[in-house]
Amino acid sequence: MSLAQVKPGETIVGYRHAGGGGKSHWYHSYVRRFDRLLSFRPRPAPFALRVDAPLDLKRGANELAVALRNATDKPLVLQLSLRFLSPGVKVRQVAAREVALPPTGTREARFAVELASEGGGLLILTAAAGGESYWLPFFTHVEKLGGDAPPLAGAEWRAAFERASALRDQRLLRSIAFDTLLFVKRKPYDSEQPFMDAHHCHNRPGGGIYRLSPARPDGKVTPVVDSLGEGIYRDLCLHWDATRLLFAFGNGVERAHAPVVPGQSYHIYEVNVDGTGLRQLTFGPKNDCEPFYLPDGRIGFISDRSEHYVMCGSDIHAPTLFAINPDGSGLRQLSHNVFNDFNPSMLPDGRIIYSRWEYNERSVTSLHNPFTMRPDGSMVAPYYGNATIRPNVVMFPRPVPGSTKVTALFTGHHGQTHGPIGLIDVRLGADGDAPLTILTPGVPVIGERIQDSRRGWFSDPWPLSEDTYLCSYTPTVQPWLEGSWALYVGDRHGNLALLYRDPDISCAEPVPLVARPKPHVIPPTEENRGRGTRTREEDDCATLVLMGVYEGLAGVPRGEVKFLRIIEDVPRKGVHDGGVICTSGTPIYTVKRILGTVPVEPDGSAHFAVPPDRNVYFEVLDARHREIQRMRSVVCLKPAERRTCIGCHEPRTMAPPNRVPAAASREPSRPAPPPWGDRIFSFLRDVQPLLNAHCIACHTHDRAANAVILTDDLTDQFTIAYQELLPYLSVANAMRWDHPDDVYPRPSYTYGSKVSRLTQLLEAGHHGVKLGDDDWQRLFVWIDANGVYYDRYETPHWPNRRIFAGPERKALDEVHARRCANCHGKGDGKADTWWLSLNRRDPRLSRALAAPLARAAGGWGRCDGTVFASADDPDYKAVLAALTSLRAALAQRPREDILSLQGTEAERQQVTLPPPPQPGPRTPPAPPEGQGVYLSDLPWEKAVAGWTANKDGLPRRDRDVEEKPLRLAGGRRYRKGIGTHAPSEIVYNLDARFARFLAEVGGAEEGGTVVFQVYGDNKLLFDSGTLRGMREVKPLDLAIAGVRTLRLVVTDAADGIIADMANWAAARLIAAPQPE
Q1: How far is Cα 353 from Cα 333, in angstroms, rounded to an integer?
Q2: 220 forms bridges with which residues in the sheet?
Q3: Which domains does the chain have, with CATH numbers?
Q4: Fewer CB within 10 Å, N- or C-terminus of the chain?
Q5: How are beta strands 421-424 and 406-411 bridged, if at all?
Q6: Strand 642-645 and strand 542-546: pairing?
Q7: Is the dihedral of CA 854, 859, 864, 868 positive or negative?
Q8: Which residues are CB-neighbours of 378 under 8 A, at least 6 positions away?
């Protein structure tokens, strides 16, 4: 387009780059915004210039010649400047000069340009005239050469590059030993996570299935199937004899319970490779996709027919593996994975290889890895990566012809189906980097979120050998652009040769139209072959032999293990609310069914039955049924399946011991259920009654005296007792993203009842509390079930279980602002047990009413001064009205924890609260005047906090950095002290006036790790070691006589500063004695 064709002010696109357009996603911010850089509005300049292009610049001396013409009828002076930019090099001024142009006259300006460094650069010519500045960029590149290479000009380099590219393409195309290529035209998937590809919530219809013959850029493209209407064609699978193929077609369901439009769901189809014989194999409202041929003649696929949902933030069904007969009959569910399966294919030995997502008490982002199973659904086992962080997701695992290796795509948890392509060689291990070989150099192996790739993105790998592969590829940063993907053949050195590109739509899923050897047919296992002759009892269980529990349990003495506990991770079914459903105050997603315990023999072996088609995992227990180790994965056995495992957390390449385990010579043990049965566990029903019976006599009123409150008053989502006991538990975390502790196996005695402070405190003897065996079992099971709270996923009445909402919450907030915020802080109580709690038997006994009510009026009198002098106080009445209304609403629409009580002994338990004792001090008394001072009453010399709510970076006096009251483990509050956040340093000039420094220190929020240190005149006086969350308080009483400079330091324990609030509570100085 010439300037004469452009109207003044009109926006034009100087260059439309394939990487432009689209938009950023929250999990992949697009950083190269070509559109914004390359669109502009031209306006007439007073001069014209011409540069002969291409420049043909080379290493060494070059000359840039610029022809200039004055476009006006007046003299014109141009200030010219030439600068050079290159990555990692400071901007360099090349030359500057002044050029005078007569009216309508011309001149030529010449610049000497010396290019010495290898790599790319940018010459920028700037011309200033008449108060305006204009610039023109020129790209440069210096090739990396061997010492004997001759200097070449740019034109010669271009010719050499074109010849080398042609040779590269010829070599790669010669690796294609077939004539015809099948492929799909479609717009790229735009799901937020790979599992969503089974629904394609955000994907766009269009395209079809085609063949390219010959498989060359000049080959002819003809349709196989493109006549099913507007939709998405996907998931090509060619039969072994190369005469017919499977595929899926549909539009997906936007949301799980959206109205089903005919033809919208994905269904499985089969068609001959010439396009004849099209037939539909699956029907109905469910999504069926990713079909594949089984060597026994059946057809496998993934489907959401299992009717369970993703746990971690969506109302999307989780697809699992199914199989049908060739005519579509005989539907059978192969996998009962509680999460989801995707990308199945066949290994030569007859096993199905597929990717599986799981996060049972493990990282929700890191584990989407290949598993294998037999075609009857038995013998499910990890293949690679079940203890590997990167890559997060392994997709499209396919065997390499003539090799024991598998190719796959490595991608991220949040993002589409794109990333680097690599090989997996499990002979080198089942985890880590050693089994991986990246075939696409320069493309990042990504973790939880997608990174930018300067080398483009790959998808749909199809191995031709260990060195070459077919793929779809886009050179763009944004992989979701509709027309950017094309088909290529590539090699392990990063070379690519184009096979086919459609100018209007992306291309994907290249499949050679060539016959392949049929995989080995694995006969049905004995348990499945005899299905017609087995008894119902045999169908109701599977059996497992554990060879030796101590294999993999480093540090556990022989004889320590007595039992295994069997727990079911219950799938989320029938609950289609979006978002994470609250099941626990600990960071997990599922509810738990305790199936029971089985004995372990003295030699460490066990032989036991488990229910089939259910996701179970195991915990190793001592004689008191306390956890020693847990399995943070799940196993699902088929009816009558018999499995053997070597040990617990042993290497997968380990050989079994050469002995017969003692347990194998006897009948399998049936799990002995806990005393309350094998129903799904509920804290309110199964644990709270023992707290009501043994604990509330002391733990009802005062945190200052008793550290925790253990009543069964309802909080916003749980009970007071439940929330206040959580800091005393050692539990696993499934909600962190890509954290090593949540991926790699953890040592024995990391989690559970044996190492939790709550258990240790009670076992050491706690004020004469005596628990019976049943009570101990309830407590141990609850802790070992990772502190789960709810027994169901349903949330029909209270969104995300929250009961403090609507007008009741508004009324409470208004009273809090008027009567409580002055002492407690504006934000305190918003999610706390002292304010947002309800005594469901009598609202007047709720803490928000009883604690601030004067003792003379029948209250507890726990607040400083008088808040509510009597029950006639208007704000007291407002709170009572709100809580009474909430109680009535809960009677009509019970929250799910209350539903778990119905018809049980826990519902009938009589609970009487003790009378309140006299209140005690919450903060140590101030030193007598003249003998000491609180640290928060002294000025500091300097201070810094790593994070503050108002972003000023300063610690807080008598508040934490969120402007809330100072708190430590157990919810204890302090009026005086210093609140800060790691990394932090606070320096005081004491001038040797004090003898002792006293404080109580600890983390101030869950999930953090901090270390407190005290220095006197740069000498270390105290180191707390790592303090985790709000689990522990360390008292300080340090001699500081003669210390002039006191330095208080908080570090992040070398694992990042997330959740690292830290409080120096009741920090005070005691004066040094004065000389007589």
Answers
A1: 16
A2: 213
A3: 3-170 (2.60.40.10), 174-512 (2.120.10.30), 804-894 (no CATH), 932-1071 (2.60.120.1060)
A4: C
A5: antiparallel
A6: parallel
A7: negative
A8: 525, 527, 528, 637, 638, 641
